[in-house]
Write a structure and sequence with these properties.
It contains 14 helices and seven strands. By secondary structure, the protein is an alpha/beta fold.
């Protein structure tokens, strides 16, 4: 089954790609095994897409920007995949599908593929398996992969570990433009794009852009940036103004990083990062196996009764994991609740 699915993906079969993304997002143990086999079979296909991460607070116009920007790229003959991480339904846990319904024009373009995925309360603004979905889109031969975060705040820097270029979208007159709370996400951004630079907001957007440009000059210079980067600029996604300039700046940044060797180094660093994340996720899954939960409850009682300190009990728990005392983890088990473990 996975061999047929892999061949269909390499042949750019869009339905096969959709099925594959559903497979890698599944938490069923048998699906996880099939997904691992599929990704292993597709490894080394040699195809590489430009990964562009996009983040911004709700109401900034991310969907409008992606539709206008993605349509422009599709009209240039590029194949564009959009991975939109939507808020999860409180009832079903699935994607609310808000982004796809708002990108109707792009969704109809023959060169575009839009896939909404539920965040499922995963922190960082991206879904747990967004990285695998990106790999599948690359295998399917897409030239550009746009990764849109869920847009819940200013801690969505995880997308920077998935992308080659990270674009931060901001609205004019949003208030607290230069507050230090934004510094974390600003330090990760390659381009800051002030949207809605049209009508009555055009002058305000220009001033906001100048404020951010000044703030960027105060940040520490990063070795992977050419002179002038990171930079701030204005666009109007609704009027489709400034989009070509954004694409030119992205192209200039990518070309410089390729020539200077930063592109390959960044991809290698990201691969190491996600390897570590997979190891951590596997360890947390072991902690949530049935036998591990029983041992944790027993140790928690020792701590509660004063027979053992919290530190000593934690070391005993980890020592038991190291020697395999708790047995293999249950495949596909969710990560344990940190608050529960703390108790």
């Amino acid at each position: 089954m996975t061999s047929d699915l892999a061949r269909a993906i390499l042949d750019a079969d869009r339905r096969a790609l959709a099925r594959a993304i559903t497979l890698v997002e599944s938490t069923r143990p048998d699906h996880r095994e099939q997904a691992a086999a599929l990704l292993e079979e597709l490894a080394g296909h040699g195809r590489e897409a430009l990964r562009i991460g996009l983040s911004g607070t709700p109401g900034v116009g991310k969907s409008t920007f992606i539709e206008s920007f993605g349509t422009m790229l599709c009209d240039k003959g590029l194949r564009v995949a959009v991975l939109a991480v939507d808020p999860s339904s409180a009832r079903t846990g699935g994607s609310i599908l808000g982004d796809k319904t708002r990108m109707e024009r792009l969704a109809r373009h023959p060169n575009a593929f839009i896939r909404p995925s539920p965040s499922q309360s995963h922190l960082g603004g991206v879904a747990r398996r967004t990285r695998e979905a990106v790999a599948l889109c690359e295998a399917a031969g897409f030239d550009v992969v746009l990764i849109e975060t869920v847009g819940v705040g200013q801690s969505e820097t995880v997308v920077a570990e998935l992308s080659d270029v990270f674009v931060l979208l901001l609205a004019p007159a949003g208030g607290d433009e230069l507050q230090g709370v934004k510094r974390g996400i600003m330090e990760s951004a390659d381009l800051i794009v002030v949207n809605k630079a049209d009508g009555d907001l055009k002058a305000t957007a220009t001033r906001t852009c100048a404020d951010y440009a000044g703030a960027l000059r105060l940040l520490r210079k990063r070795p992977q940036d050419p002179p002038g980067f990171p930079k701030a600029m204005t666009v109007s996604a609704q009027l489709e103004e400034g989009l070509e300039k954004v694409w030119e700046e992205i192209g200039a940044l990518v070309d410089w990083r390729r020539d200077e060797g930063h592109w390959a180094a960044r991809r290698a660093a990201q691969a190491r990062h996600w390897f570590g994340e997979e190891v951590r996720a596997a360890l947390l899954a072991r902690l949530d196996s049935s036998r591990a939960r029983e041992r944790m409850r027993a140790l928690a009682e020792d701590v509660a009764s004063g027979r053992a300190s919290a530190g000593a009990a934690a070391r005993a728990m980890l020592d038991g994991l190291e020697v395999g005392e708790n047995g293999p983890a249950e495949e596909g088990s969710p990560a344990p609740n940190v608050d529960r473990l703390a108790k």
